Structures are given as C-alpha cells and as structure tokens.
C-alpha cells in the first residue's frame, strides 16, 4: 500500500516563483531597468515618476513611448492612446497564459489582477516553467515571480536613478539595449508555430525599410501588413506542403 504525498501549499509555489528572479530573463530585465533609470533621468522625469511608471505601466517599451511623447510635448490623450496601442500586443500573451494558469476554483478577479503583470519576460518565463507546476499551484507560482519582479525593478529604478548619471553614455546605452536583444532571441526560441517565425523574419526585414520609406507609420504597416503576409505565406506555402493526416 502506497501513501499519497500531501499537496504542496500555495506559499511553497509562491516562493518557487520568487526563485525565478535568479533566472536569465529576470536578470536581463533588471539590468535593462538600470538603463531605463538613465533614460528617465536624461529625459527630465523625476525619480518618483519613474518608479510610478515601473509599477503601473510595467512594460518597458510602453514606458519609453510615454516618456518620449511627454518629452515631445504631446497632450495627455495622445499619450494615453499611444501607451494603450503599444500594450495591445500583450493581449495574445494573456490569452495564451491565462488558460494555463486557471484552475477549477481560481477566481476571475485574481486572473484579471495578475494579467496586468503579463509582459514579455513574465510570459516567456511562465510559459517555459508552468508545465512543471501542478495546476493548483500555477497562479501562486506566477504571482510569486511577477509581483516580486515588479517590486524589485521599481526599487531598482529608485536606487539607480541618481547613480546612472555617473555611467558613461555607452555603458548606459548597452544596459538599456540588453532587453530588446533578449526579446528578439526569446521570441524566436519560444515560437511554437511556423507563422510566428515567418512574421518575425518579415518584421526584421521590413521594419528598417519602412522606417525610411514611411516614417511615423512604419510600425503600423509592418505589424498589420507583415502579419497578414506571414499568415498567407504560412497557409499557402508552408502548411500546404505538409502531408495531411489520413484517418484510418
């Protein structure tokens, strides 16, 4: 007769998520927020404002867009619209991650709250590790990782705000661009469907060209046009060549 092992507590899985702070994605993001501190300082954003952005806006590209528009003198409505549009890219991540976390007794309000903390780093880490966590512990695991990561980065921005002024500009720029480099590598590595990789290649090629040909509309054209083109290429050229399954 075998004894059934007792289920691990929610606090156990929460602190297992906290351990993710020592993972490569989290460490790279922390270093990038040091670069964000330098960007905020040079843009005239106060320490308190930079910390508030880190805790509330969270996604690093959205903060850059917000600060850039503030620096250009854009009105509040334009800043609001730009940040909202930049954050729409998180919707597919939330849609794919929430079903992986949801349990039979998971309250909807908790999933809605945690969806605020879904950004590329949290999504990549969660999608790569949730399969090793029992479903009843996944919400606690993600909460431990994402909440702690936001808190640490918020404090890091506050601590480094006055220190980065002593960094050489090249060092600050290098720290800042570690995040987009990591994003590029991680998106390619975690792509599970061919259409994602096709869209990635089209975006890499068309982005710089459209920045020269249609500045101001380059991201919109590359996103909508490139995504549509990737879907058509994948459907009519890649998937059409794959052998179809025949049920016997």
| Most strands sheet | none
> What sequence of helices (H) and strands (E) makes up the elements?
HHHHHHHHHHHH
- How many E-type strands? 0
Radius of gyration: 21 Å
Q: Name the helicity range.
A: over 70%
Average pLDDT for all residues: 82
Q: Provide a count of the helices.
A: 12
End-to-end distance = 42 Å
What attributes characterize this protein structure?
disordered N terminus, mainly alpha, single chain, globular, 248 residues, 0% strand, 73% helix
Q: What this model shows, in words?
A:
There is one protein chain. The protein has 248 residues and is mainly α. Helices cover 73% and strands 0% of the residues. The chain contains twelve helices and no strands. Helix 8 (120-129) crosses helix 10 (169-190). It is globular. The protein starts with 9 loop residues before the first helix and ends in a 10-residue tail after the last helix. The model is unreliable at 1-5 (pLDDT under 50).
Summarize the structure in short:
Helix content is 73%, strand content 0%.
Ordered list of secondary-structure elements with their pairings:
Elements: H1 10-18, H2 24-42, H3 47-56, H4 60-71, H5 76-87, H6 90-101, H7 108-115, H8 120-129, H9 135-160, H10 169-190, H11 194-213, H12 218-238
Helix pairs in contact: 1-9, 2-9, 2-10, 3-9, 4-5, 6-8, 8-10, 11-12
């Amino acid at each position: 007769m075998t004894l059934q092992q007792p289920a691990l507590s929610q606090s156990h899985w929460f602190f297992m998520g906290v351990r993710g702070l020592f993972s490569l994605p989290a460490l790279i993001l922390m270093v990038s927020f040091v670069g964000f501190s330098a960007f905020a300082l040079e843009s005239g954003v106060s320490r308190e404002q930079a910390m508030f952005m880190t805790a509330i806006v969270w996604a690093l590209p959205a903060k850059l867009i917000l600060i850039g528009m503030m620096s250009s003198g854009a009105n509040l409505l334009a800043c609001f619209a730009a940040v909202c549009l930049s954050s729409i890219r998180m919707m597919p991540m939330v849609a794919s991650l929430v079903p992986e976390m949801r349990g039979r007794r998971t309250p909807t309000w908790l999933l809605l709250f945690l969806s605020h903390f879904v950004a590329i780093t949290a999504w990549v880490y969660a999608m790569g590790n949730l399969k090793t966590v029992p479903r009843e512990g996944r919400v606690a695991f993600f909460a431990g990782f994402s909440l702690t990561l936001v808190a640490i980065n918020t404090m890091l921005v506050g601590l480094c705000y006055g220190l980065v002024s002593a960094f050489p500009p090249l060092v600050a720029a290098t720290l800042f661009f570690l995040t987009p480099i990591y994003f590029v590598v991680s998106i390619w590595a975690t792509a599970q469907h061919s259409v994602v990789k096709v869209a990635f290649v089209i975006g890499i090629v068309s982005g710089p060209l459209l920045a020269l040909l249609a500045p101001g509309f380059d991201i919109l054209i590359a996103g909508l046009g490139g995504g549509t083109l990737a879907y058509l290429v994948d459907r009519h050229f890649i998937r059409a060549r794959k052998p179809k399954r025949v049920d016997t």
